[in-house]
């Protein structure tokens, strides 16, 4: 399973990259705003800065909600850097835009996916990635992980090439459960990745090894 980090924070992206397990980055307009990145030129520059840190795909989201606007924005984003994947919302014009981009060889990430039907449409239109938001489903008492399982089943039935990018991952157990189900990618905060490191027996075992080494030297 690929690991993407879901942030526009350059320091956190660098930290994840240095760990050696990072495969890409996802951003969205809220994450850019959180880092104080505003204005079209600053936003475009920030995407390039992210591409220069990470070896892998970087999702950059369009703001337009009409077909023509999404095409114009998406083409501008795709020209920024070869690692850019254009993030398009799961709406009617978004599906049309995904198909247009697929025909042009521009890779897309279909975002804001909350149902199997939406995931099926994204794959049919030719999205490179589909992003089901598992944490936001959990937030409204709906099983986000179950959606990942169902999409996995549907995509395997028809050998769709669209990669399942489990998004809105909130914690380490989401990462492990997504890996068990067979999501192709997960995107979450640095804390969800670093949580995988932790085990009390590792800590106590290491402390004992170091203590015994000191005794013998
Ligand atoms: C996906 O690409 C989104 O940026 C993201 O995962 C949303 O997560 P949230 O629900 O924690 O905001």
From TrEMBL:
The active site is at 87 (schiff-base intermediate with substrate). CDD domains: Transaldolase_FSA. Its EC number is 2.2.1.2. InterPro entries: Aldolase_TIM (IPR013785), TAL/FSA (IPR001585), Transaldolase_3B (IPR022999), Transaldolase_3B/F6P_aldolase (IPR004731), Transaldolase_AS (IPR018225), TSA/FSA_arc/bac (IPR033919). Keywords: Cytoplasm, Pentose shunt, Schiff base, Transferase. GO terms for molecular function: aldehyde-lyase activity; transaldolase activity. Belongs to the transaldolase family. Type 3B subfamily. This is Probable transaldolase. It comes from Arenibacter palladensis. The gene is tal.
């Amino acid at each position: 399973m690929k690991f993407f980090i879901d942030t526009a924070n350059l320091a956190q992206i660098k930290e994840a990259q240095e760990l050696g397990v990072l495969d890409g980055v996802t951003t969205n307009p809220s994450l850019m705003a959180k880092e104080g990145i505003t204005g079209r030129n600053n936003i475009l520059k920030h995407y390039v800065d992210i591409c220069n840190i990470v070896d892998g795909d970087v999702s950059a989201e369009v703001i337009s909600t009409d077909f023509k606007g999404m095409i114009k924005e998406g083409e501008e984003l795709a020209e920024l850097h070869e690692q850019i994947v254009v993030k398009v919302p799961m709406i009617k014009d978004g599906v049309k835009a995904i198909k247009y981009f697929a025909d042009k060889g521009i890779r897309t990430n279909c975002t804001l996916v909350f149902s199997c039907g939406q995931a099926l449409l994204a794959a049919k239109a030719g999205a490179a990635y589909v992003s089901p938001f598992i944490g936001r489903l959990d937030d409204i008492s709906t099983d986000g992980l179950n959606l990942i399982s169902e999409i996995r089943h549907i995509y395997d039935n028809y050998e769709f090439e669209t990669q399942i990018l489990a998004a809105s991952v909130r914690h380490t157990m989401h990462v492990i459960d997504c890996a068990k189900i067979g999501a192709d990618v997960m995107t979450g905060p640095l804390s969800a990745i670093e949580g995988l490191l932790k085990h009390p027996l590792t800590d106590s075992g290491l402390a004992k090894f170091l203590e015994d080494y000191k005794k013998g030297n």
